[in-house]
Request: fold
Amino acid sequence: MIVFENVTVAYDRGAPALHSLDFEIKDGAAVGIIGANGAGKTTLFKALTGLLPFEGRITVNSVEVAKKNLPGIRKMLGYVMQNSDNQMFMPKVSDDMIFGPVNYGMSREEAGKRADEVLGKLNISYLRDRYNHKISGGEKRLAAIATVLAMEPEILLFDEPSSALDPKNRRMLINILNSLGETKLIASHDLDLVLDTCREVMLLNEGRLCAFGSAKEILTDKALLEANGLELPLRYQN
Ligand SMILES: Nc1ncnc2c1ncn2[C@@H]1O[C@H](COP(=O)(O)OP(=O)(O)OP(=O)(O)O)[C@@H](O)[C@H]1O
Ligand SMILES: [Mg+2]
Reply:
């Protein structure tokens, strides 16, 4: 379970990017995080993973997000970042995929096997021995997703997972997301993807939590979405 209690994040001395957020996410939940550009979605993930200082209290499975607990917290959380360049830092895709599991004590052979399985599931086995700086944007996105899945974390955080993906790979990603029983938080502007993968939605506007409830209800509420700088999912337009 993830719990935010009165969480505020301020960058520099500007207006807070998150204002007194309070919410709970139960084990096994799939929650879409939506909001216009700058609403605070990425900031929420960064606070949760201990990458940013915050006021208030965040716990993951009752462990407080605090410096001394970060190794344990990060082991529970798999974070697919909005920008895959920040995530893929080894020369080759397979190096990144093996690095995490080996770091957590798995043999190289076992980690290699797991990497192969995940690459196969995502139909990107051909990327295994490619250099990260010599693959396309969408390929890198898929490789970054594969790297996180290979860690088998208890909780998955996806920041714009479908950006850069072609329609076929986007559909494949939706199927993969739906096949995962882990707790998932998915920040996205792709509201159709959110509808297809999440039962609940959290709506942010200027760092405030404006709605948290049924995905179907929130994502069909034209007035609520428009008041918060969003539009209906494509399937409900016209
Ligand atoms: N490193 C930073 N320093 C200062 N302000 C920042 C920084 N990163 C983000 N912000 C500000 O914090 C607010 C929230 O940004 P955040 O990246 O969380 O938004 P977002 O909802 O993820 O947006 P997007 O949909 O564009 O990814 C914005 O006003 C942004 O300008
Ligand atoms: Mg963002």
The longest strand covers residues 2-9. Residues 41-42, 82, 159 surround magnesium ion (ligand 2) (CB under 6 Å). The chain has a mean pLDDT of 97. The beta strands are 2-9, 18-25, 30-34, 55-60, 63-64, 77-80, 155-159, 183-187, 200-205, 208-214.
